[in-house]
Amino acid sequence: MKLKTLFIMMALSFSATQVVAGEQTVRDTLKKIIPNSETAKVKESSIKGLYEVTQGLQVMYLTGDGKYALTGNMIDLNSGQNLTQLSQEKARKKLFDEIPVSSTIVYPAKGKVKRIIDIFSDIDCPYCRKMHMEIPTLNAAGIEVRYLAFPRSGVNTPSYVKAVSVWCADNPAKAMDEAMLTGKVSAKTCKNPIIEHMDLAQKFGVNGTPNIITDQGELFPGYLPAPKLIQALGL
């Protein structure tokens, strides 16, 4: 074996050993500062010696020696990309993909489906009602809209009861249309996903309505007029 080749292999081996050691140190540190850190994902960031830690949708950075922790956005100044945001969107997309479509109320796109969005909505939220009226425009642009319930007032409140009634209706989409238009819905009960949706809202970090999550993991908090949303989705 040529000496040059041997040096290269030794350097690569040393570098790989450093990465493993650094990652293990980071994990050992995480055990001390974060509960249930076993579920956290650790990888070397774009900055040598700095590790990205993702737990759920939370992203932070730790140095390989486990001495320093950083929070905030990491920006690639060459590309202009927000690397922290990209990691959050990746985690958000994974969570999005795990949502059972059968638990949502779906308003299909007209023609080819170009994008899919999930909307956390509250029947008693004025801006949710305003956004609901724009669903035909979104559908016409090729956007499939799926509703998730997020009665902000909590369990066993009037808003919660309305959400249960809509999801338990014979035709949930029709019941949602009526509820959004009038604020009223015929009372019904059944096995429903409302509690699960509220838990999902917490995982996504939703604290208001409407709140839009896209099929690419983007997050748009609050009401966004249909033309601006369509543009933001690249359509």
Q: Low-confidence parts lasting 5 or more residues at pLDDT below 50?
A: 3-19
Major β-sheet annotation = 5 strands, mixed
Which series of helices and strands comes N to C?
HEEEEHEEHHEHHHEEH
Say what oligomer this is.
single chain
Secondary-structure-derived class: alpha+beta
The overall strand count is 9
| Strand arrangement in the largest pleated sheet | 5-7-6-8-9
Named at the architecture level, the CATH assignment of the largest domain is 3-Layer(aba) Sandwich
* Radius of gyration, whole Å: 23 Å
- For the terminal residues, how far apart are their CA atoms? 56 Å
Text of the CATH class of the largest domain: Alpha Beta
The general outline is globular
**Number of helical segments?**
8
CATH superfamily of the largest domain: Glutaredoxin
Query: How many structural units, i.e. domains?
Result: 2
Question: What is the share of helical residues?
Answer: 40-55%
| CATH topology label of the largest domain | Glutaredoxin
**Strand-residue proportion:** 15-25%
Mean pLDDT: 87
